[in-house]
Amino acid sequence: MAKIGVIGAGSWGIALAWLLINNGHEVQVWSAIESEIDMLKKEHEHKDKLPGVKLQESMEFTTDLADACRDKDLLVLAVPSIFTRSTAKSMKDLVKEGQIITNVAKGVEEDTLLTLSQIIEEEIPQAVVTVLCGPSHAEEVAKGLPTTVVSGAHKKADAEYVQNIFSSKVFRVYTSPDMLGMELGAALKNVVALAAGMADGMGFGDNTKAALITRGIAEITRLGTAMGGKAETFGGLTGIGDLIVTCGSVHSRNRKAGYLMGQGKTAKEAMDEVKMVVEGVYSAKAALSLAKKYNVEMPIVEKVNEILFEDKLAKDALEELMTRDKKSEHSSLPWEE
Fold first, then answer.
1. pTM of the model
2. What CATH code is assigned to 183-322?
3. Cα–chain-centroid distance for residue 274?
4. Who contacts 307 (Cβ-Cβ below 8 Å, separation ≥6)?
5. How do residues 56-75 score in pLDDT, each as one tens digit?
6. CA separation (Å) from 104 to 42, 117, 118, 149, 217?
7. Which CATH class is domain 3-177?
8. Catalytic residues
């Protein structure tokens, strides 16, 4: 049994807290929002983020960050990506040397173009930072539906420690040393999911969705390998797996926001209606900056940025994607002479 602090009481943090306490661990959940913690203490249910999911009476809740970090075997950082740096900065003096922190949020910081684990390592240099990601909607994890994810770390022993903590009969965890590739796949798929949602909102079908998923993973792989990620990662759970579930699921907030934009709403109107952080909106600019930095062609990412920030209509962006210069699908494959 491990003592675990879950930093962040959003849907994913609560779902993982539910999983971890069912695995036999002691779990304490932190949120900076006092009303949220009061609700969780009183109801043992997050009425807003995961309605219907009852949390065990033994689960603890706190607004005291020091208490949440103190004497823990593992800290799970589950705040939205836009709050990762500020939260890590607040945790710095509370984290012991060698403390394992598992980041479960997804994103790339717009200003620095750092992944979230890189941000945490920068702010809390004494910590051992790992990541956990893969095709895993909180709503399904908290119902005990079979799910597979990946534990990433610099050292195998750390990845296996996290693997053992989270693994259960309904939650299978693989390991990987490619933290960079994992995080890039997890962050960039949200941008493609916005496009997939837009296509749904415009009334397009399975052909369009398949095209966006397939060409989307091609873009993510081009950029990821240019940055040092491994091609195998993008063909696995944290690449194509995460992309498929986020582009196709009714649970996906990125797909839902895209759907609303495809129906004519602005990005702000869509995010207001979703009522949760839409990570793809924040990752889109970073993805485009990385594409330019590494001289990688990412036409879907470019068009999503134009829709989000330059008022381009989604239908016009799709037409421009469809009428780009004709190309071979795999330029590295040889032709017969």
1. 0.92
2. 1.10.1040.10
3. 16
4. 198, 261, 267, 313, 314, 317
5. 999 999 999 999 999 999 99
6. 26, 9, 13, 11, 21
7. alpha beta
8. 189
